[in-house]
Amino acid sequence: MDILSDLFAEFSNIQFSGSNASYIATCVESVIPQSSPNVLSELSANNLRLLLDVGYIVQSTIISQNILNWIDESPDVLQQFVNLIPSCSFMKNSSFTPFEANILVPLAIRFDILVDTISHKLTLSIIDLGFVKTALDLATTLKRAACPENRSIKLITSSLQPVFSRCEAIVAHIFDDDNISDQSWEIVADFVLHSNDIDTEKWLGKVCKHDMEDLNPKASKAINNIMRKDPTAFHRLLPGWLYRTCSRFTRRFAEDPILSESTLSSIASFSISPF
Description:
This protein is mainly α. It has helices at about 5-10, 20-30, 40, 45-60, 60-75, 80-85, 100-110, 115-125, 130-145, 150-170, 180-195, 200-210, 220-230, 240-255, 260-270. The protein has a domain at about 200-275. It contains 15 helices and no strands.
């Protein structure tokens, strides 16, 4: 019997939630390197379901990546694994998380049936910034896929557009905060890139308006993404933003003996080259 099977047998009477789930996930992640390459065929359906549920609860990238590696090494169990997914407890939750994206999307590229599963979860998910970030990361992953013309990739990409329409108000709400974090600016930049239904002029104005006073310009990537999407986009605040950005960079060069990571990132995102 595989070491993971032994481990789940030890935990058979423990409730998989809260701190228990974190403890079990830590134990699972520690024994994964010692597991057989054929572990998927050796685990019972119930234990495999528990492995997925634990990985979901703690959002374990180690568990999700190793499951995909095991599938590659044991392709004969792929169909059995796909058939098991609908019965996992996380499929009933009204959220779509990075763990699910990491597991389901690579499998959906091989099995069209999972495209509907992903689309259904995206439709039912509660909209918050965490979900928005997961959806945007998924869109970025699909955009960089080796086979962008794959039917499943195109279907999942299409299913994300109604999601982004629902998310627009949540992303716009970021600007209600007087101190917008680097992470929030990254969400804004990815959103204006991936959402096909935005008013580019309106969003260009929003972005410029809220990046005038910070000592370090933060909106470069978002503005570049808008301009690359729509080279004709213009807002009356854009020239002022460009002037203020150049001034702020000049000040940073003059005053900072060592440029911060945030400043270097802003510089890398800034461009005045033709689109």
